[in-house]
Amino acid sequence: xxxxxxxxxxxxxxxxxxxxxxxxxxxxxxxxxxxxxxxxxxxxxxxxxxxxxxxxxxxxxxxxxxxxxxxxxxxxxxxxxxxxxxxxxxxxxxxxxxxxxxxxxxxxxxxxxxxxxxxxxxxxxxxxxxxxxxxxxxx
Length: 139
Hints:
- The chain is α+β, with helices and mostly antiparallel strands and 139 residues long.
- Helix content is 16%, strand content 40%.
- It has a five-stranded mixed β-sheet with strand order 1-8-7-4-5. A three-stranded antiparallel β-sheet has the order 2-3-6.
- The N and C termini lie far apart (82 Å).
């Protein structure tokens, strides 16, 4: 009797256990032109001789309706060593703003991913920060 119960329990676990995820996340590279079309605005301001504040602002509607978060990815390649979700500022009604401060020399290693989940996967809008920022020092 115990054997039947044990086999039944294992069978239930195997059936109820999570199966492989077949969700697909599409990555859309975002240039300055594409960002403008999507209603995204990237602003920068100097904060010292070697650092810059980078802000990304967009409306959570249209393509971005239901977005889940904005990740900052630091590192080169497809598997960067650092990924962190940025805190959202929603103090302006109908707008989302995220920001960070970075050394100008590191901007070529930073990407922002705006994640918009859908039923099976979703879309990631990939912004390479160096494409939006003048890397030379402000005088």
